[in-house]
Amino acid sequence: MRTSMTGKTVLITGASAGIGKATAAELAARGAHLVLACRDLEKAARARAEILARTPAARVDVVPLELGSLRSVRACAEKILAGYARIDVLINNAGVFPPKLQKTEDGFELQIGVNHLGPFLLTNLLAEQLAASAPARVVTVSSMMHAGGKIDFASFRGPEKYSAMAAYRQSKLANIVFANELGRRLAARGVTSTSLHPGGVATEITRDAPIWMRAAMRLAGTSPEKGARTSVYLASSPEVEGVTSAYFVSCKRAKTDPLADDLALAKRLWDESASLVGLA
After folding, report:
1. Is residue 120 over pLDDT 90?
2. pTM for the whole thing?
3. pLDDT 10s digits, 164-185
4. Which of 74, 175, 180, 279 is 20 to 30 A from 108 via CA?
5. Residue 136: enclosing H or E segment and its boundaries?
6. Identified catalytic residue from 84, 162, 168, 247
7. Among this protein's residues, is 162 annotated catalytic?
8. How is the chain split into domains, by residue range?
């Protein structure tokens, strides 16, 4: 039985394709008011049209967001805070996996910038609104590839020798470390924070991935709809009401790499990230 999301406002980043779009479509079908925060507004408009074709009565808005630009993240947050009285669920879904070293507008290595620093800033800027809407939830899409990763703070501005996989593992580990720390910080305010591995889904994030990874994703055969199930579950299910600082795979709580539970690392990552994005 579908859990109704009627009356809930859900903000999803990277919702113009893949898992994000599938997550948005399912939550819209459950009655949620969707806000799609996307970089490519033409693609977002097409995604909105597809969702409305499936659920004509749905409320679906589009707002611009480029996670590789702190200026854009701040502008998006301002638009959300001014335009919406509440945020019941924030889903940090967007991500990138470039094969070669690229930098964000602010000079950060692209994967740590888009996959971690952008969502970190956005979530913090919306934290008061989330708390005011409590009980509220923050859901962060990570990956099983976080295992074996490490946080190299010196690499945030670009490592001397770039490895796409090492950068990806780092960003996905950062997702979980951040999600767990956020849960601890907001627990008393009625906001939960969870993270997840969506499964092997051949979405647009893999378009520039190594050939072996694209082939593995295709062989895995997991559809975006299946990949969205855990995001939808964490955003809506009463079974996880009050559950925080937890990681899920296939809608079940799962173990993470031990580094994800390192409290000293979590504090340092929070402090370093806050400094880098200009949070007081």
Report:
1. yes
2. 0.94
3. 999 999 999 999 999 999 999 9
4. 180
5. strand 136-141
6. 168
7. no
8. 9-277
